[in-house]
Amino acid sequence: MKNQSAARQRSPFTKAMLAIVGIALFLGFMALGTWQVKRLFWKLDLIERVEQRVHSAPVAAPTVSQWPQVTAANSEYLPVTVQGLRLDKLSVLTKALTEAGAGFWVLTPLQLADGSHILINRGFTPEKQRVEWLKQIEQAGDSSETVTVTGLIRMSEPSGGFLRSNNADTQQWFSRDVAAIAQSKGLTQVAPYFIDQGLPASNPAYQPLEATEMLRPGMTVIQFTNTHLVYALTWYGLAAMVLLGAWLVRRHDKAAIPPRA
């Protein structure tokens, strides 16, 4: 029996390796949990700032000189107003999935007085209106009427969406990629953001579209995923499991020590 108990004991090398791995795992899980806690407070602060921002009074849209300072952190969902000529013939349809169903966003460049452009998301149109919109875009003439647009600043959505890439050659757009859309339409001075026309306060987004309704603005959904607390608890839980495992190993090793004669 003494020989069998001695055989169950771990070698000093094995014990050292288990200790090193256990400490590394514990410190790693604790660091990840703490990082998620920091992200949690960052996300809560962001949500609070956006909630205050989105309900503020509209201001003038950032001008060309201000474009480099426009970021998601300081400008997204900011209500703005801008005036210019709407270039209907350069409109594009980008794939959309909304509370009102599947369809497209209608994006149209707005030419400002200084010659620069801002893409305007004029609103949502259902799938069945796509052909009619394409016909209207093809037949659109030059605009000479200045329009005023009020809406929310949104940041560009590069690459694509719906697990598909944008294709400028075929004018198939799965995301609102400002730079790619501007390039495909030959626009050189374009804001790095676009504007969702309409304000959420008057947003009928959750109501079904009428049978003849071709365009519905103001459908911006302001929603943030906040799962950082769950992730933090998960990482801390794994750290606690490492401690439990270490205690069980230690208990086993003590039980494996043969009693003194």
Fold-level CATH name of the largest domain: OB fold (Dihydrolipoamide Acetyltransferase, E2P)
Shape: elongated
Helix content: 25-40%
Architecture (CATH level 2) name of the largest domain? Beta Barrel
Q: Summarize the helix and strand pattern as letters.
A: HHEHEEEEHEEEHEH
What does this structure look like?
The chain has 261 residues and is an alpha+beta fold. The protein has two domains: 2-46 and 226-256; 78-202, OB fold (Dihydrolipoamide Acetyltransferase, E2P), CATH 2.40.50. It has six helices and nine strands. The strands form two sheets. A five-stranded mixed beta barrel has the order 2-4-5-9-6. The chain has a two-stranded antiparallel ribbon with strand order 7-8. Helix 2 runs antiparallel to helix 6 (228-256). The protein is elongated and about 100 Å long. The relative contact order is 0.18.
Write the layout of secondary structure elements.
Blueprint: H1 2-7, H2 12-54, E1 59-60, H3 72-75, E2 79-86, E3 92-98, E4 101-111, E5 117-126, H4 130-139, E6 146-155, E7 160-161, E8 164-165, H5 178-184, E9 190-197, H6 228-256
